[in-house]
Amino acid sequence: MHESGSSILFGGDLPTPSLELQTAVVKAAHSHGLITIAHALSLSDTLTVLQAGTDGLAHSFCDKPPTEELLGLYKRNNSFLITTLVVCA
Questions:
Q1: Can you tell me the distance from the alpha carbon of 54 to that of 87, in angstroms, rounded to the nearest whole number?
Q2: pTM summary value
Q3: How far apart are CA 62 and CA 26, in angstroms?
Q4: Cα separation, 46 vs 68, whole angstroms
Q5: Tens digit of pLDDT for each residue in 11-32?
Q6: How many CB atoms are closer than 10 A to CB 80?
Q7: Bridge partner list, 78
Q8: How far, in Å, CA of 41 to CA of 34, rounded?
Q9: In angstroms, rounded to a whole number, what is the distance separating the alpha carbons of residues 10 and 14?
Q10: Total Cβ atoms within 10 A of residue 89
Q11: 3-state secondary structure of 71
Q12: pLDDT tens across 31-85, in order?
């Protein structure tokens, strides 16, 4: 879970785990043969969990267009995305 609230009604300011903590969680899961799936609704939060090495995202962000950095991180991790854009519509 990595949700700052920046893309929803909260307007930000929700506490989020550090990149170091998210990375440790991913590494711990991987060391036990598990995959990780993250929740993030903003591009910024999505980039953080991808930088941490998550295997996939439970849905897409909805606040900004995709970036080259985002695509590069998806490719680097071979991460997947469960698209639930209709929920945000």
A1: 22
A2: 0.85
A3: 24
A4: 13
A5: 557 788 899 999 999 999 999 9
A6: 13
A7: none
A8: 23
A9: 8
A10: 6
A11: helix
A12: 999 999 999 989 999 999 999 999 999 988 888 999 999 999 999 999 999 887 6
